[in-house]
Design a protein that fits this description.
The chain is of the alpha/beta class. It has 3 domains: about 200 residues, 3-Layer(aba) Sandwich (Rossmann fold), CATH 3.40.50.11820; about 180 residues, CDP-glycerol glycerophosphotransferase, C-terminal domain (Rossmann fold, 3-Layer(aba) Sandwich); about 30 residues. About 40% of the residues lie in helices and about 15% in strands. Helix 11 links the parallel strand 12 and strand 13.
Amino acid sequence: MKDKLLLGDGDASMFRNGWRFFLNQALLVLSFLVPHRRGSVVIGAGLGKRFMGNPKYLYLELLRLREEGASLDFHWITENNDICDEFAEKGWPVVHKFSWHGFWSLLRAEFLVIESGMMAREVLHDVAYAWLFLGRFNVIQTWHGSPMKRICLDALKDRGMNSIIERLFFNLSKMEYGSYECVVAQSEYDQKILSGAFGNKNVPIFGSARNDIFFGTVRGVENLEDMLQLGAYERVLLYAPTYRESKAPVMNSKVFNHRAQPLEPFSSNFLQQLNSELAKRNWILLVKKHHLDTALTIQNELTHVVEVGQVDDIQELLVHTDVLLTDYSSVCFDYLQADRPIIYYVYDLEDYMHETRAFYINFKERITGPFAKNETELLSLILQSDDWFNAEPYRSDFLRFRREFQRFSDGLASKRLLQYMNLRSTGYPVAKAIEASSATELIESR
C-alpha cells in the first residue's frame, strides 16, 4: 500500500482530531460535486480498526461472487495497516482510509456500508474520518445487534439534554442518522426500535449478514478449531458479556466510560470449581470480553476456562459454540439462529439497570431465560443444559422467542442486502427495492 499514508493519519492528538474533521468537511463539500460510480461499494467496520460484523460477511459474500466470475466494484476501507497488508497479500480489494485512493473511493462510492458509524468518545468512524459524517452519500447502516438496551438517539436522550453542547451533539447525530439510505433490521421488533433510535423511516427487514455463518452460506476466515484446538473438547461453552459503562454527560469524554467498580462476575473459588467440573467432562469455557472491558480477568493457570481476546470477531466463535453464557448482550439474538442453549447470567441486573442504560424490553418477561442470579445457579444450569433445553414448555418458548426476534432463518441475509443495493443502483425507489428484496422466494430462485 504505497500511498496509504499520503493524507497522514497523525496520532492521538488535537492535530489528528482536527485533521480528521477537516477531511470530513472536505468529503461533505466534494460529495455534491463528484458523481458516484454506479455499482461501487465501500465497506468498513469496527470504527475503521477491525474486520468484523455484518460488513465483514457482506464483503466475504462479494468475494465469493467475484470468485464465481461476477464483475464487482467493491473495497474494504480501514485505517489498520495490518488489515491493509493482509488483504493486499490475499488479493482482496482494500483501501487505506488515509490514502488518496481511500479518499477518492469514499467520494465515488454509490454505497457505503457500516455497522456502527461512530462513538462519541472517539473521533472515529467505520468509513469516514470522524463521527459527524454528512454529505451526499448513500450509507447503509447494518448495525451490530438487535437492540436490547437503549441506543443512539434514545440513549442520548436518557443521558440528558441539559446543555447547549448536549443538544447540539444530539441534533448533529440526528442529522447523520436520518441521512442514511437505510438501517437494516432482523425482525419487526428491530424495525420499530431502530426506526426511532436512528430517526430513519427506511428500516428493511433483511436479517443480519453475520448470521449467514450459522447456515454455511458464508464462511469465516479464522481457523479457530486449530488456533484454539477446539476439536480436543467434547463441548465448547462461550461466556460473552456486554459492556458495563457508567452514565455520564455526552461531551464529558465519558459517554462509554467503564463503571469505576463493577461487580466481578466470578469469584476466584468459583472459577477453580468450574474449571474442575469442565475438566471432568472434557469441556472448555471460552471467555470473550467486550472489546472495551478492562475489568474482567481470568487466571492464567486455569486449563478449561480460557480468555480468547485474540479472536476479533465473536461470530466466528459462536459458530463453534455449544452453549452460550451471556447477560444483557444482544449476542443472544444472533445465537438464536444456532438453536442451542443460552444461559443468562444476571448477577448484577438491578445495578446494571440503575447505573447504565435502560432496556427497551422487560428483560425477564420477554427473554426466555434461564436466568442465573449467582454462581451456584450458573453452575447447575451449565451442567444440566441438555435437560432443560430439550424439555417442554421451555423448548416451545425458545422457538417462539426465535421467531419473534429473527424473521428469517435461512442464511440469505447478505443476498437480500445485495439485491436491494442492485435494485437501487438500477433506479428502483427505496420502498419498491425493500419490498422486492424482502421476498425470500425471489432471492432463492436466483
